[in-house]
Amino acid sequence: MTLTISVLCAVALILVSWNRNRFFDSKVYFGAVQYWFRDGGMVYDWLRPGTPYGFTYPPFAGLVMSPMSVLPFPMVVVLASIGTLVTIGLLIWWLAGPLLRGLKQPLWLTFGVAFCVAMAFEPVRETLSFGQVNTLLLAVVAADLLFGVARGRWWGGVGIGLATAVKLTPGVFILYLLVTRRWRAAGTAIGATAGATVLAGALFPDQSREFWTSALWDTNRVGSLWFLSNQSERGMLARLPFDVVESKLWVVCVLATLVWWGVRVSRSPQDVVGGLALTGVLGCLISPVTWIHHCVWLIPALIRCVEAGWNGPSRRPAYLAAAAYVLMTSHLTWIYENRPYPPLAMLGSNIYVLFSLALLIWTPVGTRISTPVHEPDKIMA
């Protein structure tokens, strides 16, 4: 039954996705990798025809995506879609599994409903419709923290390091390891990032030089900071009439956010799920660009709030999660795309930012030692 629900959900969402964003980002990846590996061009020179958008990830990401050079594009879409569906299922099982198993309803039903609710979440829909890699990276980082770092495995940190080498934003979890004094895991993560980056540099010196000296710093490659889909603190400030002092205000906001986050996670270093939740929120807030599809990193915080509100003494965390989910999933934000100045539009155009701040402040941490209940081999049984 769960498989049937998942397949039907997948088919419906893929059909909707084709009309929504038509796997735009997958087309960028595919075109850039083809240009690089098949045509011998400089990957960072390639732009999707008719747009200013090109490949923005480090060369190691291109190495990971190199199979696209021999695969037909429909197969790339199928694999990307399956990857999103599978990783969402894994994240639900790992993070919400204890709650779902504690309910009185059959597990296939509770898991199926939770899976459908997660797939309906707008950042997940956008990840699917763009053909993005967000949930794959989130799953790699979550697995590393839950099954590696939390259990003191020698390889704890490798997943975080490799995710950072693919896309720089997961590097915020290296900071989490440092703040919680997990020195060995932090060293492993840094070593994995450095090793993957050096490997890519040795194999592709020209591309590496271009990325680290030019492409990384060219903000025009990713779009305008003020565009409504940029739901970071920088995006919110860019939509406010503070042009002269915008960059300085952003630095102040980032520092204040880092301090608040650092105090919270350092007080409960044993709560790895809480650390995953808060650090995912932190990454969305302080990144210069956080498109709506990047906000899948909020999922652990939403699940933690639901769990704490369901099992804890107060329902308030669950109410916060429900409000965040409903408003983020409602597509309400886009109503204000062309209304940048009225006070109500200032709220409506920053729904994700405001709820991210609320989650950073009120997501419960330290409520339990958050390690997975089941070993990976039992999950597959």
- How large is the share of residues in beta strands? under 5%
N/C terminus separation: 17 Å
What is the tally of beta strands?
0
How does the major sheet shape up? none
- Give the helix level as a range of percent: 55-70%
From the alpha carbons, calculate the radius of gyration and give it in angstroms.
Answer: 20 Å
Please report the number of helical segments: 19
Q: SS-based structural class? A: mainly alpha
Describe the structure in your own words:
The chain has 381 residues and is mostly helical. It is built from 19 helices and no strands. The chain has helices at 2-20, 24-37, 59-64, 73-101, 107-120, 122-130, 134-149, 158-166, 172-179, 183-203, 205-213, 233-238, 246-267, 272-286, 299-311, 316-329, 343-348, 351-362, 376-379. Helix 9 packs antiparallel against helix 10 (183-203) and helix 14 packs antiparallel against helix 18 (351-362). The radius of gyration is 20 Å and the shape is globular. It starts with a helix and ends with a helix.
Considering the chains and any ligands shown, give keywords for the structure:
65% helix; single chain; mainly alpha; 381 residues
